[in-house]
Sequence to fold (1085 residues):
Amino acid sequence: MSAPGQTLAAKHTRLRLRVRGAVQGVGFRPYVHGLATRYRLGGFVANDADGVVIEVEGEEVAEFVEALPQQTPPLARIDDIAVEPMVADSCTGFRIAESVGGRVTTRIVPDAATCAACLAELFDPTSRFHLYPFVNCTHCGPRFTIAERLPYDRATTAMKRFPMCEACRADYEDPSGRRFHAEAISCARCGPRLSHGVDEVAAALAEGKIVAIKGLGGYQLLCDCSRDDVVQRLRARKQRDGKPFAVMLASADAAADLAEIDAPARALLEQVARPIVLLRSRHHVAPSVAPGLAKIGVMLPVAPLHHLIFHALAARGGAAGERGWALVCTSANPSGEPLLTDNDEALAALADIADLIVTHDRDIVIRADDSVVAMVAGGPRFIRRARGYVPEPIRLARSMPPILAVGAHLKATVTVTRGDEAFVSQHIGDLDTAQAVRFFEETIRHLTSILDVEPVAIAHDMHPDMASTRFAQGRGLPMVPVQHHHAHAASVIAEHGVAGPALGLVLDGYGYGSDGGAWGGELLLCDGAGFRRLGHLAPLKMPGGDRAAREPWRMAAALLHDIGRGGDIASCFAGQPQARHLPMLLDRADTPVTTSAGRLFDAVAGLLGVSMVQSYEGEAAMKLEALVREPAVLARGWTVIEGVLSLRPLLAHLAARDLDAVEAAGLFHGTLAAACVDWVADASRATGIGTVVLSGGCFLNAHLAEQIVRGCRAAGLDALLPRQLPVNDGGLSLGQAWVAGLQITQQGLTSGGFV
Amino acid sequence: LSHGAGGRAMAQLISGLFHEAFGNGWLARGNDQSAFDVAAGRMVMTTDGYVVSPLFFPGGDIGSLAVHGTVNDIAMAGARPLYLSASFIIEEGFRFADLKRIADSMGEAARAAGVPIITGDTKVVERGKADGVFISTAGVGVLPDGLDLSADKARPGDRVLLSGSLGDHGVAIMSKRQNLTFDTEIVSDSASLHGLVADMVAAGGHGLRLMRDPTRGGLAATMNEIAQQSNLGFRLQEDAIPVKPAVAAACELLGLDPLNVANEGKLIAVVSPDVAGAVLAAMKAHPLGRDAADIGEAVADDHRFVQMATSFGGGRIVDWLSGEQLPRIC
Ligand SMILES: [Fe+3]
Ligand SMILES: [Mg+2]
Ligand SMILES: [Zn+2]
Ligand SMILES: [Zn+2]
Fold:
């Protein structure tokens, strides 16, 4: 990037630079202006259809070119810089020129947490932004959630309703300032207004009330997380079962009191994206915050309003004030539905949930949930990717026709490709409700509109009865069905730009198999647009379909039946009303089976009595994981026969002994991981393929992921986990898009579907 | 039963069996068709094929099912059924005693409904070309003056009435097929609904928009079909939908949603809100509508979603499945 620039610069005194990436609306032009001035260069900088174009002339052009990528504004991302020589013009002075029109291919950046400079102004009594809850600049503030379409301009954002006052206009037009072309600029005189005073909010929280506030990506519910009665009231009103809540604190130092925070965790917490970070809990919060779990979700303030609330709470002092306030911070939505963004809807839907609803008059154009990240296998891994990260693209190894991929059913995301970039949408949620399906469609409209892209084909899951599949059917575009676990593996291949064939180890809950079966623990050989199923986990009966996924005791019963102990089911699960009848179902030859890895976790959790009936998805597996102290391997605990991995020896061992649950959980995790490594290594020897991509929801399990990655690497394999996307179904749409793109590139659009 | 040689004797044997079972003057004449007087006004006609496994199940068999199904298809127009026809495809080797049982049950169902089977046909096909017995029926009926039930008549605010508990037939069939035994035997709800319909028409008149019997695919498929045809959405209340405890327990064991399970003696009516109370009262007064309930309403919705408000406050989409219920939880 800079090497050719330097050589050119040595011979020419005038250069044109084209900068691509996230370079618009992030203070890039003032940055260039400052840099050019520092090197006493003449010329100009302008936005154009591809990003930013710069022409510089002077003695120190080489220094300029070298420095350009070094100290970019915090929200800028440079993808590449092209440098070409120009005829010298002997111009003097450097100016910021008008934007050059044309079809826009640049991009809108994610929302960013309040920057240090704005924060200083927020609490500076002499600043005109003193205590102003919407202070922002080109280095921070809302972007994605207020943008309607390209180009990113005040007129195409939710700020169009707020004409700038004179002071704001002056800042907006001052090329030397942080607010030069800050499209969301406003102040107390001209900008949006809060419905309530911050002191009122703080008072309500201090009294143990539940407060709804309008956050960046949607409404949030806040309450005191130290009082169990308050948290329980929130749970009851929100109709939320045992699913954990996240906690917000004023700073990483304050958070260290609630959770174990090392340097990488602190860096994650303090990212401008401000994700919820899953950390080992010190259990200093009310027990109802994250019942039965070893980890707690922690986040730092995102928007000025959050800072103002903590500031006001601190000023009140009191017991909680001394330790630093910690608030439950959860999305405000009726159970199972998307985050609320519309003021009227929020006032109606939250009336029975929140004691105080704090709103304002800046619209949220598109909702974005809080992102959730955990440290797994030595790196930050997404559990949910949304606010703060979307719409940052994933760079693909090749350019492809524009594809829309619609994901699956749960934790849905969609992906739109544009050239060699893939834009994975924010987390949409489970497509079980009308509201979620509407949000799903809205997300597709918004994403194609902010990218200015018209897809030529739709990639979708093979499952016939998903809302996403049905959406794909109704578009009048060529459809490309992609098998669920193939898409899982392909998403990692696409993200890492893996060239050539790769093994895919997908440890997942359920996906519709190419044969219609219930797949979920799969070893695939992925090559280009196709794949081959090299093997799978030994099938286990799944009595009652999705019922078995909700009730781990059923999978435990299937496990007992499988090892010839069906007679013990009634007595082992005497508390379950259906336990008497289940053997009747398990005895039948036509009861469906599954090769799912997720259901295997459920079976073991049920067997150990860790979770009999789940109150939220993944509860059993998370509670089983929470028990693990030391993963251990049971020798000869598994077999691999013709590609089928059976853990029957391990499962029989776990069922036979009266093992302590901690020991059993350690043995299960360690042995499953070792068995998977053995399985993959076998396949690697047989195929000569040395790269294995790891995907599927089970890899959210830190013990499993770490053991498998370590084992694969020890066996000389290159084991890859996703870095930029969730390993669960949240990353699926990227894999679908990648497979569909390759297929269309190879076969053209006429072939219709993939067989 | 045999096929081919000796066909004549066999044909006579079979027709004798049906004549006796269906016992009416039309069949006794032995013609290839039957003549009947037509009423003034509008007639309705329907046809249907019956393939069910097992042929005999608690609460009925393929014969009674064929009568009830065809009578109900006519009744759902608000019409009074008059006559039926029946055609049998019988697999070679099928037991004569079983055929007699089916014919008797069919005759009994037709007599109970007051709708005679006035013409019919039988064919015996080679072994393997049919599964025991297939029955095709047709029926004709007459519409009361001026009554015109149709999905495009539904309006936002209309009420959805259901005549009784869901899932009885489908679960009875499934338990029998899979050899599952429960503490309480689950019996099919197979029944002729035209009597109930006549009472509803009398009570609701032009306030009745449309009626459907939620057979294959259950309430879920039928409500989605209505939503598509009426260009409306529907909001249903889970609490309001009657499901017998034994059926609920069996569905829970099998992981089925009672909304997706077939019924053969239930109907759904969409009615204008001003007659909903009167129609519901008329339904409850009829033996086949004792458990009738107001289960929801029609709403304006460009997506034509059928939504269910669940007992604990949430809402979900009631899906129109393309086949059997597949898992979805990943
Ligand atoms: Fe999955
Ligand atoms: Mg029919
Ligand atoms: Zn700022
Ligand atoms: Zn202003």
In short: Residues A 164-165, 167-168, 186-187, 189-191 surround zinc ion (ligand 4) (CB under 6 Å). Residues 661-687 of chain A form the longest helix (27 residues). Chain A touches chain B through 51 residues (CB under 8 Å). The radius of gyration of chain A is 27 Å.
